């Protein structure tokens, strides 16, 4: 059903390469953040002598670090998928409806898999996959 007359327009190669660079930079900085988070996790887990208040604080810190790194891990995943789409030529199109995505949106969130409309559906849990 997806083979309609609406032929997707491919993004110019120089734009693809620009987005590839943006994605690689973001990926590098996220990976560095994750490495930092991991060493902070080790530090908080490394204290042998703690009273109860300290323990509460560090378990809160750990939870915060975990939630932070979950987000980062998710973004890294999206970045990898976006890099894959640059390679296979589908980059710049919504993964749900196939519409050509707004360049402003891609500049702000180069790893966004969906157009604004589909993103809204995804956030409401109305999008499958
Ligand atoms: Zn869409």
Low-confidence stretches: none
Written as H for each helix and E for each strand, in order along the chain, the element string is: HHHH
Structural class: mainly alpha
End-to-end separation: 18 Å
Radius of gyration: 20 Å
Helix content: 55-70%
Question: How many runs of DSSP E, i.e. beta strands?
Answer: 0
Domain count, please report it. Answer: 2
Report on the biggest sheet. Answer: none
Enumerate how many helices there are, as a single number.
4
Which band does the percent of strand residues land in?
under 5%
Mean pLDDT: 84
Shape, per Cα inertia axes: elongated
Small molecules bound in the structure, each named once:
zinc ion
Describe the 3D structure.
With 129 residues, this protein is mainly alpha-helical. The chain has two domains: 13-91; 92-129, no CATH class. The protein has four helices and no strands. It has helices spanning 13-44, 52-88, 103-108, 116-123. Zinc ion binds next to helix 4.
